[in-house]
């Protein structure tokens, strides 16, 4: 699947968001375990990482499915005739409820 070149915009760089998330994750680990994650801590990091990767694949597929449904609905709304708008509105509301956004 080919994609277009990224377009510069006014949003902050994603890497800055990831750095903030990593800092917050470190603080959460310290609160939960009393220490930040360190090497030679008695855990099998390959097994832990593998299990986390499996979870991530599931979450990614969920996000892909949900995004496809949202995009289908947005395209339908953009191309709708006036008489179709109420039906599309109801579908949009149902989708938001399923996503836990209402």
Question: What's this entry about, in short?
Answer:
The protein is mainly α.
Supply database-style keywords.
3 helices; 102 residues; mainly alpha
Write the layout of secondary structure elements.
Elements: H1 14-33, H2 45-78, H3 85-98
Helix pairs in contact: 2-3
Structure commentary:
The model has no long low-confidence stretch (mean pLDDT 91). The chain has 2 domains: 11-40; 43-102. Helix 2 runs antiparallel to helix 3 (85-98). It has 102 residues and is mainly α. The two termini are 33 Å apart. The chain contains 3 helices and no strands. It has helices at 14-33, 45-78, 85-98. It is 67% helix and 0% strand.
Query: What general outline do the C-alpha atoms trace?
Result: elongated
Structure annotation, total helices: 3
In percent, how much strand structure appears in the residues?
under 5%
**Helicity range of the residues?**
55-70%
Show unreliable segments: none
Total separate domains: 2
Distance between the termini: 33 Å
Structural class: mainly alpha
Multimerization status: single chain
- Please report the total strand number as a whole number: 0
Q: State the major sheet.
A: none
Q: Average pLDDT value?
A: 91
